[in-house]
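Q: what does this look like with flavin-adenine dinucleotide bound?
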Amino acid sequence: MSPMKIVVCVKHVPDAAASRRFDDSDHTVDRAGVDGLLSELDEYALEEALKIRDTAGDGGEVVVLTVGPEPASDAVRKSLQMGADSGVHVVDGAIAGSDALATSQVLARAIDRIGGWDLVLCGMASTDGSMGVVPAMLAERLSVPQLTYAAEVVVDGTQVTVRRDGDLATETVEAEAPLVISVTDQINEPRYPSFKGIMAAKKKPVDRWSLADIGVDPADVGLSAAWSVVASTEARPPRSQGEVVIDEGDGAGRLVDYLVGQKFV
Ligand SMILES: Cc1cc2nc3c(=O)[nH]c(=O)nc-3n(C[C@H](O)[C@H](O)[C@H](O)COP(=O)(O)OP(=O)(O)OC[C@H]3O[C@@H](n4cnc5c(N)ncnc54)[C@H](O)[C@@H]3O)c2cc1C
């Protein structure tokens, strides 16, 4: 099998454990002021890319790509520690508040500049916006096929076949590279960075690009260009204790009554 050049799109997201903060003036997520990390669902995409690279023989290459403010460099660093060969961080103040359309535009133009790629791998969704639309938008902007929600990826030369597990059926879908793939969290077990990997990552190249470096007009991205805006945000109400059932021999019956009452069954 010939070596493959694989671009993996990884997003830096606010740590779900930290209380998410929104900017009251424009309801965008405060990404700079809170702890963040590599989106967990993108670790599966990265792991799959590393496996395909290592199976395809010498000369393969995995490039990680992120679009985000300064702290997003953490997502690139973690990916290099896991085994990616190089990184690209698109950072530009004009990107703040971008919707999925603009984010996919910036990613597509950065991928064009990376060039020479065979596969683009993405997570099935990010763990903050969770829209699950960027891979499809990317495929459209790059004019290539897309194979989404892959639970298994088989690469045979330029032929790529994925298994997609649905609720009612399992699908086998195939297409010719170059193409975009999104993977589920069922596809593999992401590796942990080894000490050797952490040390090696320090020497791996990371390019920092602005919008000008990839030919994107700042007027096409950011909050002012967004097609959808968040009108208001409110904190989720604290979880109520819920109904406590003390089983006095009638526990099962009362549980069934509760489930029927809630139309769960
Ligand atoms: C709470 C919340 C609500 C939002 N609502 C909307 C909305 O209604 N409409 C809208 O257009 N935008 C919305 N956004 C903005 C949107 O999240 C961003 O534009 C985002 O970059 C793309 O959407 P996503 O994170 O949902 O991506 P998804 O489509 O869920 O991402 C799928 C995959 O795309 C790749 N990817 C996504 N973003 C990046 C990135 N920045 N860098 C590298 N790879 C990436 C990753 O591989 C990821 O696994 C919202 C954001 C938040 C936090």
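The domain at 5-225 is CATH 3.40.50.620 (Rossmann fold). The longest strand covers residues 61-67.
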